[in-house]
């Protein structure tokens, strides 16, 4: 191939170039097609060769390669475009002939492709330019170029129009019906319009005078002139002069003998009856002068002689025929033979006359057919416009009233077609009449309405042209279609009953085109809570069944996910979640949900969530639960389908305002329960908690663990987060029951410093009182007794005494956990501790207040405290005295066991004990008094003065009422509410 191409490039000889190019063409197109792409550009370089034959050969190569391998057309069509306008007519004609086949091959190639590539678009652009260029060549001065251009345009018309349904289709035929409807670069409608335009151009071309027609006319004119000249050269015979000479000759020689012979000879030719011609033309001689009669006879004979001479050949033939008759029948005479021949001639003349008459009648019939047809427009007077419109309206009304007749007659379809055509193409009065007829009974006439819609759609898209009888449209086609569709929607909306939703669904699903106004109408209908959920379901069906309007209807449905009305909002969210399972919509729905979630970062709610269609006609400046739900509802609903979204919620949460955060924490409860503690995304969120979203993460964990024990994985992630990144003890609250006893006790000092409500929730989790109704068995790393003991063991440096007091009070409030036995165990354990806990006596007093039956047990504890020299710990000693004061007279026996110094101090600290104690002792019998040391009696009687010790109120007055009920705790309202509690 390289050698051939090099030789063709170097050689000057035209035949060598052509031969080598043909060899390369044969090899590349038929034997080694895989090499075509490599050598195509090298061959196309010969398209600019000086030799016209070489360029013509290249044109043939372009044609064959394009037909066999259409993928090379984008590279060759530009060359073909240049060759079609070549200066040499031979090359141009060859290029025009190849253009038709290239166009056909390119259309087949593009129509059969699954995806339209940029090469196809480029090729189609150049082919469109080629068609325009060839259209301009139909006026070329060259007959051959003009003929090829016309043939090309004829091919364009055949390819770009629909075939005749009655004609058989060949295997290689290609027409407009073979082009897919989804092909964007070559739409059927545009191709058909282009073909119609080309057809109009060809009609004008054939109807106008061109060079060919002018040449033919000139040739015909010359031939006519030549014929006239030839006719003019023939001399015209001088018949009158000949007759006059013959007349003189006969008159001089006519004698009686000759006249007699003539009469005798003529008798054989005389007919049996006198003919009408003889009767009409014969004129007898009025004179008796022989010379005059001779002259008359001579004149007649001369005339007959000259007329007979012209028919000599014919007469000779007749004589020959007579001789043949005589030969065949010798018995007849010459006269009889001549008479028989005369009769045959008469019969032939009659036949000729009859045939001539028939031909004349035929020519008259043709002439009558060629006569100008009668036109009613020329002979009738046009009616005024008002009368025509009134008559048309009357006709339409009659058609409208003939519904039953048309149904019985089997022409209901034809009647509907007539009505829809009239309504779509005639004046507004007709439209109004038909529309009123349809809206009067929408249930039974929806088919007619849909037919009218399709008629308007055909006019709108140009599928159907208006006839000359139709009135000019008063408005644009899209306005007429839009008005009709919206009017039908409004009419259906006025219907009451269950048929309304079915009719509306059918109208929207079967209409050929849904306009923007119709979409807006459906949006308003679906936002009406009185209409129920059927319009919303219709929106979902439109999203699925209307691919071209899919995004429009999806946007309407998404708007309803933020509606003020809870029923509409929840139904819309449910439908959108169903659509979320469709792959082509999931990304769009997710982006919409994330976009609205991002609005929660704003200080004020965006205007987009307000409006009549959203159920919020008035714009608000502050975030409310309603506006927050509008932005968050769809997002939370998608969490169960796509758990990855939870990370975006945590990121946005950090930028929310305090009010919005509070609402979000309350709204996430329901959706988050569907995640489950084993969710990988939840565990990842806990592990990588964004800074500032700790409250949200804690709330989510709290919701998941509220009615079930935390999983080991969740506890491990929370523990790791608490130990490494976030030191907020609130993170531990949801997973307290999953921690160890040691970890719980270590966290208690921080936990009790939280809001009292949070502390109460902590104790509820530890004590198992937060999910009593869930049916889930409670498991806690610490028992109620151990918890109360741990509270008494908290180092004062880690928590204030007042905070510990409030925490212990919360414990005693849970009577279900702290029973009489539990409290006794706690007091027993606390009493055995060394040193004694500071709050020991406060706990004893509270226990006695809750369970008065423990008084005996308390007295035993007080006695044991004396043995442990309780007075060495001032705060515990003060509590001891208070307990004795509140438990009198049972405590008198314990008080009497105190050493004198401590007794004196106790009576000084509680002066109201002296008198009752003295009375109690005075009531003893003498033998009982003998057991009381005198020093004790002296103290009781006040004989031994004692120094007062510094007062230290371990249990401030007012902590307990007279009936020994626990104090009401103060709640610090400035501290935020804990997770899970409002």
UniProtKB/TrEMBL annotation:
Question: Where does the record place the region Disordered?
Answer: 333-358, 957-982
Q: Which Gene3D superfamilies does the annotation name?
A: Leucine-rich Repeat Variant (1.25.10.10)
Q: Which residues form the Symplekin/Pta1 N-terminal domain?
A: 90-212
Which residue numbers delimit the Symplekin C-terminal domain?
Answer: 728-908
Instruction: Supply the source organism for this entry.
Output: Acromyrmex charruanus
Q: Where in the cell is it found?
A: Nucleus
What is any one of the record's Gene Ontology cellular component terms?
A: mRNA cleavage and polyadenylation specificity factor complex
Q: What is this protein called?
A: SYMPK protein
Compositionally skewed regions (Basic and acidic residues) per UniProt: 336-358, 957-968
* Gene name, Swiss-Prot/TrEMBL: Sympk
GO biological process per UniProt: mRNA processing
| Keyword list, A-Z | mRNA processing, Nucleus
- Its primary localisation, in coarse terms, equals nucleus
